[in-house]
# Entry
Amino acid sequence: MTRHFLDLDQVPAEELRHILNRSAEIKAARDGKPKLFPDENRALDSKVVALIFEKPSTRTRISFDVGIRQMGGETMVLSGSELQLGHGESVGDTARVLSRFVDAIMIRTFQPETLEEMAECATVPVINGLTNRTHPCQIMADVMTFEEKKGPIEGAKVVWAGDGNNVFASFAQASAQFGFDLVFAGPETLDPDAGVVAKARSEGAAISVERDPFKAVDGADAVVTDAWLSMHDDVSARDRRHNQLKPYQVTEELMAHAKADAIFMHCLPAHREEEVTSAVFDGPQSVVFDEAENRLHVQKGILRWCLGAL
Ligand code: CP
Ligand code: NVA
# Structure
């Protein structure tokens, strides 16, 4: 069966854990530690991966591209508009054709249905590089980063301050899979997708909502935020959203209400003095660039898992 990596609730928890363990070993090998995978540099030898972007990207694009090359594979980075996909060819036909040429497909797109149709029609693995609804590769890197800094995430308290967006949705799914407590602190108008939260809860996620950001971060091991306006959001809503989200800005004062050794996380790109102050972003609790680096390592694990090489 083709192994897609579409969402964190689509892959069994033990497989996610396996990917994380292997990714840590891949990272350690790169740092000169003993190689547990003798073929570390050739796992994708003669494989070609299509990387399709219908939205901008710095980290996802470069970390996938570099990671595949480091494993001996080749990449094609494509924008939706340069494919016939952007000019009327169906997603399904695009998937069928690409499957005749490449060994895997990573796609960043708008509607989750596009990703789903790609996966249904492709005969090679499809990886979710972000949709309007979720961003699973990011949260795999975030769990890896959390555990590097603080030990097992199981039983930890992670507080999300801000917009209930696609990155939060993957945290909600991760809460069920990895067994941590997740608190959403944001305005009711920007609550997360109710369906995603209900499904995650039904699968064991411990998700609570606290409108007071200071109460929310009490006892937090990690405080997380993201842009107040995502790529798919209507720019004309910017001022209204900013006014609603301002009370949830991550400041030094807010961090002072979390555990003394709490970490600050952000998937990036960040907007300093909007969702987070520079003092926090550049401060000693911030692990944002480790999160970015871990995209590289964890996606190597994901690709290898998809291709049966883990
Ligand atoms: N965090 C993340 O996915 O960044 P990019 O949008 O730059 O890929
Ligand atoms: N929520 C953001 C994440 C960017 C990586 C967006 O979708 O634009």
Q: What stands out?
A: The pocket of phosphoric acid mono(formamide)ester (ligand 1) is lined by residues 57-60, 130, 138, 267-269 (CB under 6 Å).
